[in-house]
Structure formats: structure tokens, C-alpha cells
Amino acid sequence: MLVDKIQINQVEFGATDTNQFSFTDGVLSFGSQKFATLKNFDSLQDFDVNRDIELVSVDNSQA
């Protein structure tokens, strides 16, 4: 089964681990900062930040 992942640029967020993210009532947060609301919340009941978030290292400062 193909599962979508949310890719987050760890350079821009300053994230070192997916444990720094939380998902509550359809809202994705980094620390105490809410930054996204995921649609179709009912189908995301099993969303897990440790499984479904992928941290990527992309330095966009040169762009």
C-alpha cells in the first residue's frame, strides 16, 4: 500500500527529530507553533508524526 508522506525541510524549521511535531484535531504543529491544517481529518485518524513526516535537508539560502 502506498502511503503519502509530508516532507518538511529540517533546515528551515530547525527540526532535528519528528518528535518535535504534533498532530491534534487535524492541526500539525512544530513545538507550540501551529503551521498546517490537514483536510480530510476523518481519514487521517491514524496519522502518526513519527511515521508520516519525513525530514529532508534542503538548503534554500542559495536560491
Automatic annotation (TrEMBL):
Protein's UniProt name: Uncharacterized protein
